[in-house]
Predict the structure.
Amino acid sequence: DIQLTQSPSSLSASVGDRVTITCRASQGISNSLAWLQQKPGKAPKSLIFGSSRLQSGVPSKFSGSGSGTDFTLTISSLQPEDFATYYCLQYNTYPFTFGPGTTVGIK
Amino acid sequence: EVQLVESGGGLGQPGGSLRLSCAASGFIFSKYSMNWARQAPGKGLEWISYISSSGATKYYADSVKGRFTVSRDNAKNSLYLQMDSLRAVDTAIYFCANSGFDFWGQGTLVTVSS
C-alpha cells in the first residue's frame, strides 16, 4: 500500500500568513493527489485534484503543486475561515490512502 | 446541485450487521464510480471501498475486506454498504463520495457496541 506522510502535523499561524503543507508518498503516484479541507463536525471538502487543479468555487488563495512523491498545498493569505484540518489523498493505486492530516490553528 | 445523503447508521452489535445507503441526486449517477470512506472519532480519514459505474468492479481496504460489501442500484440512484461481522473498531462516521472525491455526503454515524 502507498503510505502518505504530511508535515507538519499541526501548525499555528496568524491571519494573513502564507502557509505551506507538504505531503510525501511512499512511492510515485504521478499527479493523482487531492487536497481536502475538513472543519469540525463537517464532511471533507475537496480543494484541489490532480495535484494542482483547483476545484470549482475554491478561492485562488489555495494552490497545489508536485508530482511523483512530493506535493505541497499553499494558502497564500490565511483567513479566519481557513482554520481547519487538511488531508492529502492519493487515488493513483488501490487501496486509496489519505495522509494523517495537518491541523491549522490560530496563533 | 449535487447531493449525497447517507442513511442507515446507528448502533450495531459486535458480530452483527448494518446496511448503509447513499442517495444521490443532481448528477447522472449511473455514469460515475463511487467510494465509501470513514472517520473514527477524533481520527483521520480512511478510504474503505470503491465501486465502478456499472457495479462490475469493486475494491476494498484490507480492514473491511471479506466483511463489507459495496453495491449500487443505478435505477434508484443509490449506493449501499453492507457491513457484516461488525467490530468495535468499525465505529466511525461513514461518508459516500463520488469518483473524484469532489462531492461528499454529510456522513452517517455507526457505533458498534454491546
